[in-house]
Amino acid sequence: MSERIDAIMDRIDAAQAVVEVALDAMPLDFLLAVFRDSRQPMKRRMDAAEIAAPFIHPKLAMIGTANVSGDFGTMLERAIQRSNAVRPIKMIEAKAVPVKSSEAAEVSSERMKQSFQSLRRRF
User: Fold this and answer.
1) Which residue of 48, 87, 91, 118 could cross-link 35, Cys pair, CB 3.0 to 4.6 Å?
2) Sorting pLDDT into bands at 50, 70 and 90, what band is 50?
3) Cα 36 from Cα 29, distance rounded (Å)
């Protein structure tokens, strides 16, 4: 009985392994044949689809357009002038606030290696 089961399993495996592709087929054609063959296991079909997808479906990408009026040197000079005309960023002015010695705490190096959750100030 087990010999008969083994023979049936061998026949099923052999049927699943056959993928018909033309002799001059490209690798992508082979992947598509595996993907479209309903006799193949779903895992194999999904793997083939995943590998073939980037070669079939276009990748979304950003495309920029530029209104070119003149040569590159002129455009570059105008861009430099525009960037120099921008106002400089103002610095934030702040004063140091002294901390009372009762608020400051000494922390050992061993404690520094642990979590800081308990050392956070609660505002």
Assistant:
1) 48
2) very high
3) 10
51, 11, 12, 58: which is closest to 33 by C-alpha? 51
Task: Give the integer Cα–Cα distance in Å for 31 and 116.
Answer: 53
φ and ψ at 87, to 5 degrees? -65, 140
30 belongs to a structural domain: yes
| pLDDT on residue 17 | 63
The number of folded domains in the chain is 1
Q: Report the distance separating Cα 40 and Cα 33, nearest Å.
A: 10
> Bigger pLDDT: 101 or 91?
91
Residue 33 domain-assigned (yes or no): yes
Q: Alpha-carbon distance 19 to 101, whole Å? A: 80
pTM for the full predicted model: 0.39
